[in-house]
Amino acid sequence: MGYLGNGTGMKRILLGAGIALATVGTAFAAPGKPVPYWASLSQDEARMRVGPSLDYPSNWVYRRRDLPVKVVQVLGLWRRIEDADGTQGWMHVRLLSDTPTGIVRAGVAPLRESPREGARALFRAERGVVGRLSDCSGGWCSFDVKGQRGYVKASDVWGAVGN
């Protein structure tokens, strides 16, 4: 190794690197929004792990894009999530999306023409059907299942509607 003089140059470089690393490390410590918050799966296949690292084994493999999940804890690029059945585990942030979705929890949920009980039923969604949610208010949400749209009671779905 060559002569570095009195070492001050090297100390400055190391000090600068330490500050940069500390800054990067804390950038991921706090989420952009308070937990818990809603998310959905952004991939057709997503692995839930028992811990926040690829070193931990998978405890579930989800094969359903848009499945709603609740983020209950943030740790760097990892999110502790809860699914509609209450199962919790860790998922990498790249597997999640902010797209609001819901899963039908009622036996059958009519998708109505307008957000009211007496409105004409356009479709019927069975338990387990996943769709995209929007315009949730007054106990109703607009629900889109692969282009088939209607209004569903918020109490009939689990997802980005506050339940």
Q: Which descriptors would you attach to this protein?
A:
163 residues, mainly beta, five-stranded antiparallel beta sheet, 1 helix, 12% helix, elongated
In words, what does this structure look like?
It is a single chain. With 163 residues, the protein is mainly beta. Helices cover 12% and strands 44% of the residues. The chain is built from one helix and 14 strands; from the N terminus they run αββββββββββββββ. It has one helix spanning 8-27; strands at 37-41, 46-49, 58-62, 68-75, 78-82, 88-92, 96-97, 101-104, 108-112, 121-126, 130-137, 140-145, 148-153, 157-159. The strands form four sheets. The chain has a five-stranded antiparallel β-sheet, with no helix packed on it. A five-stranded antiparallel β-sheet has the order 13-12-11-8-14, with no helix packed on it. It starts with 7 loop residues before the first helix and ends with a strand. The relative contact order is 0.14.
Task: Give a short overview.
This protein is mainly β and 163 residues long. It is built from 1 helix and 14 strands; from the N terminus they run H-E-E-E-E-E-E-E-E-E-E-E-E-E-E. The strands form 4 sheets. It has a 5-stranded antiparallel β-sheet with strand order 6-5-4-1-7, with no helix packed on it. It has a 5-stranded antiparallel β-sheet with strand order 13-12-11-8-14, with no helix packed on it. A two-stranded antiparallel ribbon has the order 2-3.
Helical element count? Answer: 1
Strand content: 35-45%
> Ends: how far apart?
63 Å
How do the helices and strands follow one another from N- to C-terminus?
A: HEEEEEEEEEEEEEE
Which percent range fits the helix content? 10-25%
- Structural class by helix and strand composition: mainly beta
Enumerate the spans where pLDDT stays under 50 for 5 or more consecutive residues: 1-30
Query: Would you tell me the overall average pLDDT?
Result: 84
Q: How many β-strand stretches? A: 14
Query: Describe the biggest sheet?
Result: 5 strands, antiparallel
Q: Outline, from the CA principal axes?
A: elongated
Radius of gyration: 22 Å
Q: Biggest sheet, strands in spatial order?
A: 6-5-4-1-7
